[in-house]
Amino acid sequence: MIIVMKQSATQDEVNNVIARLEKLGLSAHLSQGKDRTIIGAVGDVSGLQEKPLQSWGGVESVLRVMKPFKLASRDFHPQDTLITVGERTVGSGDFHVIAGPCSVEGREMTLELAHAVKEAGAAFLRGGAFKPRTSPYSFQGLEEEGLKYLAEAREETGLPVVTELMDPRDLPLVSEYADVIQIGARNMQNFRLLREVGAQEKPVLLKRGHSASLVDLLLSAEYVLHQGNSMVMLCERGIRTFETYTRNTLDLSAVPALRELTHLPVFVDPSHAVGLWNLVSPMARGAVAVGADGIMVEVHNRPAEALSDGPQSLKPERFRELMSELKRIADAVGKKLPGYEEARARL
Amino acid sequence: MIIVMKQSATQDEVNNVIARLEKLGLSAHLSQGKDRTIIGAVGDVSGLQEKPLQSWGGVESVLRVMKPFKLASRDFHPQDTLITVGERTVGSGDFHVIAGPCSVEGREMTLELAHAVKEAGAAFLRGGAFKPRTSPYSFQGLEEEGLKYLAEAREETGLPVVTELMDPRDLPLVSEYADVIQIGARNMQNFRLLREVGAQEKPVLLKRGHSASLVDLLLSAEYVLHQGNSMVMLCERGIRTFETYTRNTLDLSAVPALRELTHLPVFVDPSHAVGLWNLVSPMARGAVAVGADGIMVEVHNRPAEALSDGPQSLKPERFRELMSELKRIADAVGKKLPGYEEARARL
Amino acid sequence: MIIVMKQSATQDEVNNVIARLEKLGLSAHLSQGKDRTIIGAVGDVSGLQEKPLQSWGGVESVLRVMKPFKLASRDFHPQDTLITVGERTVGSGDFHVIAGPCSVEGREMTLELAHAVKEAGAAFLRGGAFKPRTSPYSFQGLEEEGLKYLAEAREETGLPVVTELMDPRDLPLVSEYADVIQIGARNMQNFRLLREVGAQEKPVLLKRGHSASLVDLLLSAEYVLHQGNSMVMLCERGIRTFETYTRNTLDLSAVPALRELTHLPVFVDPSHAVGLWNLVSPMARGAVAVGADGIMVEVHNRPAEALSDGPQSLKPERFRELMSELKRIADAVGKKLPGYEEARARL
Amino acid sequence: MIIVMKQSATQDEVNNVIARLEKLGLSAHLSQGKDRTIIGAVGDVSGLQEKPLQSWGGVESVLRVMKPFKLASRDFHPQDTLITVGERTVGSGDFHVIAGPCSVEGREMTLELAHAVKEAGAAFLRGGAFKPRTSPYSFQGLEEEGLKYLAEAREETGLPVVTELMDPRDLPLVSEYADVIQIGARNMQNFRLLREVGAQEKPVLLKRGHSASLVDLLLSAEYVLHQGNSMVMLCERGIRTFETYTRNTLDLSAVPALRELTHLPVFVDPSHAVGLWNLVSPMARGAVAVGADGIMVEVHNRPAEALSDGPQSLKPERFRELMSELKRIADAVGKKLPGYEEARARL
User: Fold this and answer.
1) Consecutive H or E run containing C255
2) What is the DSSP secondary structure assignment for residue D91, as one 8-state letter?
3) Closest-CA residue of chain B to A53
4) What is the pLDDT of residues B288-299, one digit of tens each?
């Protein structure tokens, strides 16, 4: 922790900072420059993290040298975290595709799509039963009924189910059906929800918020890890910028950046990021090439009638093409696509 | 609802759009331009709002002419909404100051600050008992104990209490103590929470999310209104931009813009927006000048020891000065500051 | 200058950084923490500013303690810069209004508007003869003809002229007619242009770029100051954010923030920021309240026929009302509006 | 062009809009909805583009159906533009790598790097002789001396030279040496510069501005095309967002989006976008996978001593590895890398 004093700081203000640090059991390391005095706090500074140092008299700025997240940091956990779900291991270098409809809209479409994405090579089935919708007039999800269809689809296909939890009160219900619990972008800083999924045993797919920095995302992951659940999969899904052609701006550089900062696996959701189906495939290809552990992609058999996110959903035939494109790029970067390879083998 | 067809759209695609509209009970109004065909959907288009029109073959873009919020819109409710809390009426043209500590840290500081802000002219007491904190290692609030101190402070000062609700499960507890229930920026799109506060009777202070457009904010208000609670106070608190000198960028133009779009009252929280105490007073003055219904401001007796948001908190003496500055500007723009005027009268 | 070494940095890497610093005539101040080594560079670090320290082996991050601008910084020039243009002194605490059409569209409209804004209390006349337009199909300005009308308007009204320079080759021409040379937002980082206006003697009004941080803006001012021209007036005019209701997001907090960082005067252009005439007046009022030295506002006699920026232009009668609103707020915050006061006195 | 009237618009206001349209030689197509009147302007609306329709009485909003750029639009020019520079053809589906130092710092480093990047498979040599630097205290480029070293490097290696033009007065000089003239992000809206490079015959590499939307970028390209130069290569180089871990946020979705909007080739500059050398290679791989026509990448033999952009420069050996990674992905997506293939053949 480095404290930079204002040019106008008095000796009293400097002494006062030193005294406060010493009171906290730290030693102060003084560096008197030409124009500024700089004070390093040496010792166990974890207690300092929460102190409002910028309110101390004469302080201009504070540099927190330590990253604010610990459990999520690669510094203290250099090896990649592996998360096993059914037959799949996430984080091991393989590439996994989570696919399915945005919302579960009915039994038949769910089963039909589950079979279609499995045959195309998906490793997980996605589908929302609880839908966070910007407008109260939008379809809000089939709730438990939807979860049941997902479970039935899993039974038929063997694909593990990824589905969103919005409300802590639904946790018992959702965890009964889900294999991976998704926390959506809008709930990335719903800290109570994070603590709850941290205190249970299902893996968590945590999506980056629309205006969340990478550090914010890792602090949200830290909430989950801190409760004891070490199985967190991060998911980049686009951030909000001034560009309006795409729904959000997909930050693919988050993938290699997170790879450096953390040991947790990183997924990419190109569908929500771009919001336009014809941009989904290129961005999915980009996700493999930059080193993601997988993608999450929306597939719908009748996008023109979808109850949510129709414009960004791929039809099953386009999804099949995408899978073979992904396979070629995965080969080029030395990754395996186990779902795809098994699907090919079954043919 | 206007549907712009692609230049390359075929006659079949145009016919298909018309057929779909007619199947929905609408009539299609065709306008064949030099380069584009444009189709207007005429009739009750509310059912169209949720259709994925952009997925329909040959469609280039869709203009939704109607605003997506209705209950919050000034179009259908031209007169200002008035919200009465104790002796105060919000939305009537008066200016109200909500002041107090960021977090309730203890009994004595809460009572001391409540008296201080009341004497300075505040109309409401703020204080967080449940704190949404970016890091799990930060102080998370005193919870019920904090609510009790707030209630005690209200009893002593008569100031109504504004406090945050983070989790739907705490609603019974929080509404027992709060006069106004605050929904924080991070929960602006926690739609389940919005529905719950919409189904109860306390007024709601809804803060704008870090990356929420004005339309997003009004759609979140619509969730509350739609459940039957018409007492929603909006609060601009800064949006996330590339600028890092301030914590967020306070969008004061949101105040006159919301005044046009909606009948709901609009507050401004300069403290969270700028994050630096010495910018709080100028921005609070700006809030009166642009026409806000009030501000929400953090006051702390020992900012250098605050458990949250110390750097942006005003000391009570600085808050008193601010109140007299606000009074002069309120006079200049023809607004009353009833809390201040009564406080002066008591002296 | 503080250099934070990676946790994984070797002793060799630490030694190498020390050796490099010493080679540059600096002494290295070592602070060995529990998890990180931190190296302070002590001495005249100005030569270090440009070194790619982050490329040095083992370096994690670098904190540049010194502000990167010197001439623009209040640290080394605590008193406010005063800029005298004709009878007006900018930066002295008075509030000045620069008003006129976006573009000079003809002789008559220019003269008519010049008289109108003068009678209403403006202190400067604005008008563009060279127009930076996003589209090549838009009106690009009357060029020298426009400058002549501005000069004629100055002769008739006595109002000094503020007009934009876009191309260094036009500097002789523009400075023949202008009293203040405006550098537009799109040219804020046209460094050659900045150097040219720094090497001549007319005051410069420098507008903040759409994505320029306050530090970027001050570095651009530094280019001008560094060439010897100390008369720089800064102008906040909105930054680009995700919000689309307004054309840009007016960052009024830039005013008090710049007040701290620099001694240069600060104007606000609410017209370009919001892009909607009915939001201009509230934001202009806000600008006085937050402490700006003046505003720049677009006035047009026939906005519905304006060749540029019609939607955000005030009609002369609305501008007159605005001036009296500004006067009341200026009184409330202890500022004078000399243009307005003289106009009233002339009546 | 669609004009949406306010709900409160009077019949007179509607009639007035119709009359104005008819005066402009257009016919008005009226659509009277339940809550709104909508007016379509039919005929040659190009004259309407610049009219301030939003200032017309009673108008709520205006939808410009036509894209504001024509020459750059794929609508009127469906086939890809091919640009031939020496032996290379850009836009034909091949992938080209432009590589070299950020700044030309001296003769030897330039020659050494030119040979190194050629041997590794680059197709063009980059290097700045005129440098747009945020601070006046930074290295500003070797100017003509630098251009001469680039020309010498071209002579030795055969690589065509891409170098930046900042000032219209330097155009004769720069075009004497450059094969492709680069317009930097900060000059993307320096419209005078755009017109000048539009009126000469060298191809132009136009970089996206920090806060430029895709439409803005295409309007800037339109300035060049409109002057008669059809050889414009676009370059995505990161936009400014709230994320600070990377220097900018690389918007790889711009590549497929531009592919739809325009026939012009699209490059990606991962170096400036991320600002950290270790993220450059993954993002370069992503660029191939999403379909770019090439990348522009900074290579330096001694990044720790670079006069600009050291932290984001690759060392030649790392660049060689990158080239072979790119080759594998290019193969996977069916693109050729002619520079690389020829370099391998020469070995």
Assistant:
1) helix C254-261
2) T
3) B304
4) 999 999 999 999
Quote the DSSP letter at residue B91. Answer: T
CA–CA separation, C240 vs B153, rounded Å?
A: 43
Nearest to C329 among B215, B252, B332 (CB): B332
* Structural contact between residues A173 and A129, judged by C-beta atoms closer than 8 angstroms: no
Contact call for B31 and D29, based on CB within 8 A: yes
Write out pLDDT tens, residues C1-56.
788 898 889 999 999 999 989 988 888 888 887 778 888 888 777 777 778 888 88
For residue B142, the distance in angstroms to the closest alpha carbon of chain A comes to 15
Label residue C331 exposed, middle or buried (CB < 10 Å: 0-12, 13-18, 19+).
Answer: middle
Nearest to A325 by CA among D288, D338, D340: D288
A–B CB contacts, 8 A cutoff, strictly below: 127
Encode pLDDT of A118-142 as tens digits. Answer: 999 999 999 999 999 999 999 999 9
Question: Between B135, B166, B192, which is nearest A68 by CB?
Answer: B135
Between vectors from CA D319 to CA D318 and to CA D325, what angle results, nearest 5°? 95
Buried b or exposed e, range D49-61, using 16+ CB within 10 angstroms: ebbbbbbbebbbe
Contact B246 C257 (CB under 8 A): yes
D191/C307 CB distance under 8 A: no
Side-chain-side CA neighbours of B1 within 13 Å: the count stands at 23
- Per DSSP, helices labelled H in chain B are 11-23, 107-120, 144-157, 171-177, 191-198, 214-226, 254-261, 270-274, 277-290, 316-332, 338-346
Count CB neighbours of C254 within 10 A.
29
Query: What is the predicted pLDDT for the residue at A310?
Result: 82
The nearest CA of chain A is from the CA of B261 a distance in Å of: 16
Q: Would you say residue D278 has pLDDT above 80?
A: yes
The DSSP 8-state label assigned to residue A313 in this structure reads P
* Two structure tokens written together for A314: 């791929």
Q: pTM of the entire structure?
A: 0.95
Tokens linked to B343: 């406080």
Q: What was the pLDDT predicted at A66?
A: 78
Q: In this predicted structure, what is the pLDDT of residue C51?
A: 80
> Cα(B345)–Cα(B325) distance, rounded to whole angstroms?
17
Decide: A123 and A330 in contact? Cβ < 8 Å.
Answer: no
C-beta separation of B303 from B311 below 8 A: yes
Collapsed DSSP state (helix, strand, coil) of residue C227 = coil
Q: Residue B155 contacts by C-beta under 8 Å, 6 or more apart in sequence?
A: none
Phi, psi (rounded to 5 degrees) for A105: -105, -15
Tell me the one-letter amino acid at B42: V
**Distance between A83 CA and the closest CA of chain D, angstroms:** 24
User: What SS3 state is found at D302?
Assistant: coil
The interface predicted TM-score (ipTM) is 0.94
Give CA separation, D12 vs C93, C321, D15, D63, D333, in Å.
47, 27, 5, 21, 59
Range scoring the smallest mean pLDDT among A335-339, B186-190, C27-31, D224-228: C27-31
Type and span of the H or E element at A135:
none
Vertex B51: Cα angle to B48 and B54 (nearest 5): 115
Q: Locate tokens 């002793």: which residue?
A: C11
Q: Are C308 and C138 in contact (CB under 8 A)?
A: yes
Answer yes or no: do B310 and A219 touch at CB < 8 A. no
* Furthest CA-CA distance within chain B: 79
Amino acid at C22: E
Residue of A nearest to D211 (CA): A242
Token code pair at residue C233:
């007036």
Cα-Cα-Cα-Cα dihedral sign, residues B170, B171, B176, B179: positive
Q: Do A34 and C44 touch (CB under 8 A)?
A: yes
The DSSP symbol for A333 reads: T
Read off the pLDDT of each residue in C228-250 and give the average, rounded to a whole number. 97
